[in-house]
Amino acid sequence: MRRICTTGLVLLALFLLLAAAGCRSGDSPAKTAEKPVPSTPAVYTIADSTGDWGFPSPFAHYQRGPGYIRMSLLFDTLVWKDEKGFIPALAESWSCDESGKVWTFKLRDGVRWHDGRPFTAEDAAFSLNYAKEHAYKFTDLAPVEKAEAPDKKTLVVTLDAPYAPFLDNIAGTLPLIPKHIWSAVKDPETFQEPAALVGTGPFKYGDYNKAQGTYHYLANEDYYGGRVTVKELRFVKMDEGTAPAALRRKEINAASVPPESIEALAQEGFTVIKSPYYWNAKLMINHKKEPFSSREFRQALAYIIDRQEIVDVAQRGQARAGNPGFIPPDSKWYAPDAEQYAPSPEKAAALLESLGYRKGADGFYAREGRPLTVELIAASALPGASLARDAEVIKQQLEKAGIRVDLRLLESKTVDDRVLKWQFDLAVSGHGGLGGDPVQLNRSVTGKGFNSARFEADPELLKALKAQVRATDEAQRKALVQKAQILYAQDVPALTLYYPDWYWAHDGSVPLFYTEGGVALGVPVPLNKMAFVK
Fold it and tell me: Which phi and psi (to 5°) does residue 8 adopt?
């Protein structure tokens, strides 16, 4: 049996070989004009259409991928990933015992916090125990029973049971924090002082302006991982549509750009990279209230909503239609037998009629004569996504099928907040993480955040999800993940609409890349901090 319990010594040797070879990757969708590689600028500027992603401490940044990215530039983890896979970070090697429950990390020598204090195993153990106590929101620390530091350079983490995603979702995601600062902090979310941004990462905190949506970081000249290639790193707020012109004027070095601009940018010598299918747009369904609490009603919605039409019309062909089983079809974990709900107004009508709805000349009515009406909310703007256009197409599809729709376009954080509080009927939203470990399926079904369906009505589904993260044999785990997808598709607690084609363009001065499986637990943004380190 193949055990999912990796030893870091082999990975360290592989990392050193790749580093010596200067290995970097980029998937360009168009032929790029040949030109000399530009010299690395002293100040590297990245445009972002949202701007503010929260105070960049581990506990205060906004709980979406770009917020994590901004924090990750300041804070390091035990292990990390580059474009090929795991590499050493604060741990130079790692191993687990035969039980799969005890992990031992050998930590690096000579690492210092940004304030000059030495990093030790005591800091690492404190970080895990503190994050468990204070419910770190970006990953689940529940599998961790305890973390101990038998000496200054050894960390021992004991799990309550084997946990297949441990390296990806805990060791490779949890930022380590200094005990000498955080041990006195009782409420980590409100601790938003400069001391909260003292990490071991390649950049130090410079400035954050919430109103303007800007971040300014300074190179850590003493970074243990290598030389930081830029002196300053800036994030500025800028609409995606204006980013191509700003690139040409050399006002910025990198940005997410609209698909219609990529050919021209590539021909002009810019490097254009296309995202993997690590993000999905979803229709969130409030299964806590009627009529959405009925599985048959949710299935009717799935038969009405034509996902390919959303791709063709709202996304202008720049996406792949979603799998109702959640995981993208190009993933090795994909379940081909999951129900796909080919559009069928007839099947949808039959399901609605079986629930007591009757079809009138102007749509469906409930038994008591009320028109069947739903509220649909969507973010008016989300970086790289066109959720408002998606919602317009869904409204048209539902109304054509006889379901009246009250569409409301809201600010993205308002949508997230209403979904979290169950103050909605249907919501168009989305999130990344799909390229990482398949524990993302668990987070998207039973997690506690606004990106999760928070669905626990199917005991068989819950059993498969629980078993898959405990399975250390990959073949056994794959079978469980596929079973969970089939059950999820049958239940339709939420519906994946599509996986978008996203493009970034940059001037080539820093070798940006998409991380294998996404940054940390699967963030689908090509701003891995290792691109800035030699």
Answer: -80, -15
Q: Which position has the token pair 């294998």?
A: 516
AA identity, residue 405:
V
- Give the count of beta carbons closer than 10 Å to the beta carbon of residue 109: 11
User: In degrees, to the nearest 5, what angle opens at C-alpha 497 toward C-alphas 328 and 351?
Assistant: 115
- Three-class DSSP category at 3: strand
Burial class (CB in 10 A: 0-12, 13-18, 19+), 311: buried
Q: How far apart are CA 487 and CA 47, in angstroms?
A: 41
Q: Which residue from 21, 147, 167, 23 is spatially nearest to 93, judged by alpha carbons?
A: 167
First to last CA, the chain: 38
Beta bridge partners of 523: 519
Convert the pLDDT of each residue in 196-254 to its tens digit. 999 999 999 999 999 999 999 999 999 999 999 999 999 999 999 999 999 999 999 99
What is the C-alpha separation between 441 and 388, in angstroms, rounded? Answer: 25
Residues 322 and 307: their CA atoms lie apart, in Å, by 7
User: The tokens 């084997």 sit on which residue?
Assistant: 162
Structure confidence by residue, pLDDT tens digits, 141-200: 999 999 999 999 999 999 999 999 999 999 999 999 999 999 999 999 999 999 999 999
Q: Which residues pair with 426 in a beta bridge?
A: 285, 376
Q: Write down how long the chain is.
A: 534
The pair of structure tokens assigned to 272 is 């254009």
Residue given tokens 């205060």 in the structure block = 60
The values of phi and psi at residue 439, to 5°, are -60, -15
Residue 341: both structure tokens together: 């709900």
Sign of the C-alpha dihedral computed for residues 496, 501, 504 and 510 taken in this order: positive
Shortest CA distance to 374 belongs to which of 386, 358, 391?
391
Q: Which of 356, 359, 358, 343 is nearest to 299 (CA)?
A: 343
Q: Tell me if residue 458 falls in helix, strand or coil.
A: coil
Torsion region of 186: left, alpha or beta (phi above 0 gives left; psi -120 to 50 gives alpha): alpha
pLDDT greater than 90 at residue 16: no
Q: Quote the pTM value.
A: 0.83
What token pair was written down for 307? 């996902």
Tokens for 55, please give them: 């105070």
